[in-house]
Amino acid sequence: QEQLMESGGGSVQAGGSLRLSCALSGYTNCTYDMSWWRQAPGMERERVSAINSDGRTTYADSVKGRFTISRANAKNTVYLQMDSLKPEDTAMYYCYTDRGDYSDCDLYAGQGTQVTVSS
To answer: Which of 28, 71, 73, 93 is least buried, going by the fewest C-beta atoms within 10 A?
Structure first.
């Protein structure tokens, strides 16, 4: 059974870096557009970045120039390189499959990985 798993979260001081990974395990014929979201306590979930199957990327204004999303050679694996981290980046980060290349592709959401940035 397919499962979307994030890793790479942790605690870091302001100005530091973290790299999040997200991989869809199991076998699938689908290739997905994928995205990273985050949610801080008491805040709405925010879309941080996305990448489609062609490699086109989008970023929230709050992370432009600091975060970089990329795809691995392995299908349905993406990374989020987070540099110059700020305390306001503290949140639970979630990975999603946005859209598959076939109409019957199931969609998945990860369980989340915590990122904590201290000042």
So the answer is: 73
Rounded CA gap, 9 and 93, in Å?
8
* Distance separating alpha carbons of residues 105 and 4, to the nearest angstrom: 14
Instruction: Summarize the confidence of residues 43-47 as an average pLDDT.
Output: 96
CA 116 distance to own-chain centroid: 15
Residue 118 CB neighbour total at 10 angstroms: 11
Listing DSSP states for 40-100 in one string gives -TTS--EEEEEE-TT--EEE-TTTTTTEEEEE-SSTTEEEEEE-S--GGG-EEEEEEEEEE
By CB neighbour count within 10 A (0-12 exposed, 13-18 middle, 19+ buried), where does 43 fall? exposed
Q: Are 62 and 74 in contact (CB under 8 A)?
A: no
In this predicted structure, the answer to whether residue 74 has a pLDDT above a threshold of 90 is no
Would you say 77 and 69 are in contact if contact means Cβ atoms under 8 Å apart?
Answer: no
The region of weakest confidence among 4-13, 31-40, 59-68, 97-106 is: 97-106
